[in-house]
Amino acid sequence: MKNKKITIIGGGNLGQAIAKGIVNSNVIEATNLTVTRRRIELLKNLADLGIQTISDNIEASKNADIIFLGVKPYQIEQIITEIKDSVTENTIIVSLATGIDSHTIENYFGKKLPVFRAMPNTAVAIGQSMTCISAHNADKDQEEAVLTLFEQVGQALIIPEELMASATVLAACGIAFALRFIRAATQGGIEIGFGADLALKIASQTVKGAADLLINSETHPEHEIDKVTTPRGVTISGLNEMEHQGFSSSLIKGLLTSFNKIENGK
User: What are the subcellular locations of this protein (predicted)?
Assistant: First the structure.
């Protein structure tokens, strides 16, 4: 991996976060990583790390072992048309664009290629993303290479491509849903006497602790809930009232609404 040449086309927030995570982990040398953006002055922070920054997508794609397409879905065809002659059949393509399937990407290139789709969430900026990845025409070594790169910015796993829309909702949209819970808990904290800043700090750390508890102990949420719900206790009373008000069902309906929006394009 150290000698792989990697290009990220599209040095926006996501592209920059991935670039920083890869370089800071030392999985490759900074000089082997290239990031493109029209206004390369906005990539000065990456250049300061030794990363190559240029505006020429074609030049950046030449001799690259792995190319990340970090652009908007409506830009994908245009970018691929621009770089396809610089890409060989051994080049690994990683698309970060929502809703563009692997067959479409491969058809744009006009040749059989190992194509990955990846869906990080915004926690990639702090190295805590949950990234779901699908693989097309890829062998195990290529899968491991892509997984290794995304593991530098959080957790990553390979899923069937047909679940990528679901991954978008559960992991990418899920960040917003979790943040909305924290906001609501903060507002409730203010109602019961805390100042806004203190309520936010308590709510945020409580959610972080709950998530870490499940990840580290590999238990089910209900198992952990049972530990803090005692007969006639305050926790079970609060939980039951939330369920009476539709807490779980509204969250599930929200997930399904977002999923249907992706599936139906409406």
Answer: Cytoplasm
pTM of the model: 0.88
In a domain, residue 151? The reply is: yes
d(C-alpha 232, C-alpha 229), whole Å: 8
Q: Nearest-CA neighbor of 251 among 165, 176, 188?
A: 176
Give per-residue pLDDT as tens, 194-242. 999 999 999 999 999 999 999 999 999 999 999 999 999 999 999 999 9
Q: What is the DSSP letter of 118?
A: E
> What residue numbers bound the domain in which 242 lies?
167-264
* Pair 108, 197 in one domain: no
Residues 130 and 185 reside in one and the same domain:
no
Binding residues for NADP(+): 9-14
Q: How far apart are the C-alpha atoms of 258 and 171, rounded to whole Å? A: 12
Binding residues for NADPH: 57
Please indicate, yes or no, whether residues 248 and 178 belong to a single structural domain of this protein: yes
* Residue 1 belongs to a domain: no
Distance between CA atoms of residues 245 and 75, nearest Å: 43
Taking CA 109 as the corner, what is the angle to CA 105 and CA 110, rounded to the nearest 5 degrees? 115
* pLDDT tens-place string over residues 30-75: 999 999 999 999 999 999 999 999 999 999 999 999 999 999 999 9
